[in-house]
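Key idea: predict the complex, not the pieces.
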Amino acid sequence: MISRVDHFRKRATAAFAAMLLLIAVAPAAFAGNELAGKWTLSVTIPDSPGSNTTRTFAVNVIVSPRGESLHGRLDITDESGKTVGGAWRQVGKQLSITYELPCPGDGPCASLILLGRVKGGGVLIKKGQVIVMWDTPNNKNPALYDTSNGSFRGTRLE
Amino acid sequence: MIFRTFKLLACLMFCVAPALVGTRIAASQSERTLSGEWIVVSSPINGSIGSPKGTTLGFPDRDMVFAQQGDLRTGVVLREDVGQNVRPLGVWRVTGDQFSATFQLWCPDPDGPCGSIVMRGQFVRDDKISGTMTAFFDQPDNSTPTGYDTWTFSFVGNRAAGSGSGGSN
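Result:
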């Protein structure tokens, strides 16, 4: 009889420990769909205004929690290790990230607006859309500058 | 020996020092920065009171504060007209006399449209800027190349009195 009680206690303790471990190793699953945290994003955009050739690059993003203005900051680090700042907002699952592309050399430069939805319990962004506004003026474009569209996806790291 | 020392000192005063000062002046003339506080006044380019899909942006004057820490260039809009703590965030970069800044709009109504602003401008002087700003709203608009509701403004900005133009703040 005593051994059965002990056995039950041991199993209950093990189950409780497993539950604690689950909570500890999977914080994202309990963080809802808030973007705050560490992400890696894969962004695909044209390599220049009007170009049909695209380039895909990865950035690591550290997203700070939102402040009282419903906005937050983020640090974006590219594959070369260069870090720039960005700003983000989110309503429900719908999020928007804006940042200025680092502009090395003489290549075309641009501002990016990333629009997407946080999915998978807060760990994935799929089929996100990118608005690219280049630095080249274009009076025929309603934005008054060349624009392009791109795409992005994201995976939460932490 | 004394004469040689005197010549060396004279050379330092009249040859090297002016060269250093000249370099500093040239550097300050070539490096523009948005760092500091600006009062920016915008107006719709075609006089329209709303975007093609009917979204408006309200008050045209904006108190904007830009800062730089290393490569991190940040901006904030002081929206004290709607609340003491309402401070939409943005980022910026400068290339020569040209600059670009990107901001998120403040949208307290979760059911209403929201958007992002991209500013493109140039320095008229160290304390004056002008250019255009484009609002990309989250609403679809098939008539634009991006597929999003787009509204453009012109703007003029003046550095606020007493606001320095130092590299970091």
